[in-house]
Amino acid sequence: MNHTDQSDLAAPVDRFDHDRPVGADLAWLGAHAAARLPGTVEFHADGGLVPTLQAEVARLRALAPSGRPAAVLHLHEAAGARDSGVPDGTAAPADPGASDEATAGTQNEFVDVLAELAAAGPEAFALRSAPERIDVIGGGERGLLYGFYATLLAAPPEPTSSAGAGQWEIHAPRHAIRMLDHWDNLEVHPVMGQVERGYAGGSLFYEDGELRADLGRVEHYARLLASIGINRVAINNVNVHARETTLLTERLDSVARLASIFRAHGIATFLSVSFASPMVLGGVETADPLDPAVQRWWERAAGDVYEAIPDFGGFVVKADSEGQPGPFAYGRHHADGANMLGRALAPHGGEVFWRAFVYNHRQDWRDRSTDRARAAHDHFAPLDGAFDDNVVLQVKHGPLDFQTREPISPVLGAMPCTRLAVEFQVTQEYTGQQKHICYLAPWWRENLNFRFGDSSAPTVSDLVARGRGGVVAVSNVGADEFWTGHPLAQANLFALGRQAWDPTASPTGILEEWIRATFGPAPEVSEVLHDLMDASWQLYESYTAPLGVGFMVRPGHHYGPDVDGYEYTPWGTYHFADRDGIGVDRTVATGTGYAGLYPEPWASTYEDPSTCPDELLLFFHHVSYTHRLRSGKTVIQHIYDSRADGYERVLRLRPRWQELAGKVPSELHDRVDELLGEQERSALEWRDQLRTYFFRASGIPDASGRPTY
Ligand code: GCW
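^ thats the input. predicted complex w/ 4-O-methyl-beta-D-glucopyranuronic acid below
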């Protein structure tokens, strides 16, 4: 172990060869999932996605020829099951006039369940499972696809419980929107690389400034996404650079090619566009959303897109954020901007995803009254009710920026008359960059199930579901042979899909499904992986920035510790540590007032340091190092102990993983093993820099006597 290793100073080096072809095992859709395919699959359906399903059966059959020989899977389609274009997810009435023979048969046999299924919508499916016969009825063609994958991926019923066997179960997604955003650039950006915040090699879609010639892997990716219920994908970075702007016009054929791949898997394709497109591409003098020439330009652009891609999903927009152009330049507000685009798309059935990540990234660090955490609420909450129906406001889960720990964004509780999507980061920008193990499902679950009020108040998931909104997440996939750089980070992608479908699903249960589908049913593999992953988010938190204070990462690439890295910068992410204490005063009484943006009981709970949850204490309060946490420890001793204990626990991961040598594919084993070495090195750096920094700042010795430097 080299204590003076300098690699935290430069961008972290990625030593892996990301260009090797992917083998037969496709993440969780490989031989183990294939082994659960029934010996016979009968189609009683002829919807648009049936050829996709037939191809899927053939592919899986080739991986595990016998499957479950005795079982027969019947795939049926409910009458009136056609759904196309942007998936809506709301219930569509069954079409009683359907005359097609296959569906008419289905009607008679399953008359009881069909009404329930119709009420559940076209993405729902009905499943009836007995050892030798499994029936799936799709509420629509997407529902059929999801039902098929459920038979391969969902946890098999407990062998002892026969209660559910042979009974129909209806499964419907909780959220209409289940979307992945890609921050992929066509060109390698000089600072951000090919994929902004990407930790899995290059882009799956683009290479050398153009769409890849061979899109074979995009098709496999689309299969993976369909299998976890994803129904929307945005194919380029929300920071839209010059070349990427042209995807809307001269490179539209590239978008169309990607859309045709995703379409076959029930996924609608979206494009991130620059708000300044009329100026950059169209020679219009302004991008003012109220200017008729600008409106006409967007209407024409949208018309051209739909000519090429009739079921195009719509636009994603990052406006007035981190240097991206937006309506503020013209004295307009964000509903003006979003609705202008919404109206250009509306005649074609498209949607606008408008991001609420708007704040001043050029603030003066001397000014302690400006609070970046307030910004999205200050800008957007007053606009509740002003957005058109086909505009979805995309809100990061926390008020800062995808930190390991932050409170929920108050915007999500403040806009009942707006379609909302909560945004997560599957890509691990601030959570170990796919070099550390960090299974994020427990964190997402906490966010989705937060209630803005007492135990009778709706959850975040309820709030976004209500308006036909949902979940959007930044993908963690790239051209890497294991898709996600760290092979175990595949579990995060899998879990995101599962939670977007069912936010109440248990993270441990989801992990178990992923383990079985990926590695098979061997109990020793499952045991080790649960040990390494179940609590890995809490472990990561324990050795990085303490008690919700956030950041403390190296500026720019955001990997590894740098306590003061952002302290005197314009980015608005400060911890204010001095010799006496640390934390940000966001109280109403003496601070920025942010705590007051929550309804009760949260406003009071967060306002008072004696009731504020420990893990968020430094987010809401500036306290002395000797302040006693609810846990009984002082803040300083907590910082010392958890960093040291966290590192000790990290040291136990690698030997545990090594028990699986020979039990998982060897290349995958080697990759994880090497990354665990990096996790150890980096966790040590976090431990020593944080412990030492706070000893030097406070002068208070560590009561445990462990060394600082
Ligand atoms: O987390 C920050 C990232 C930026 C990103 C931005 C955003 C795409 O550091 O790289 O830009 O958020 O979400 O827009």
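The radius of gyration is 25 Å.
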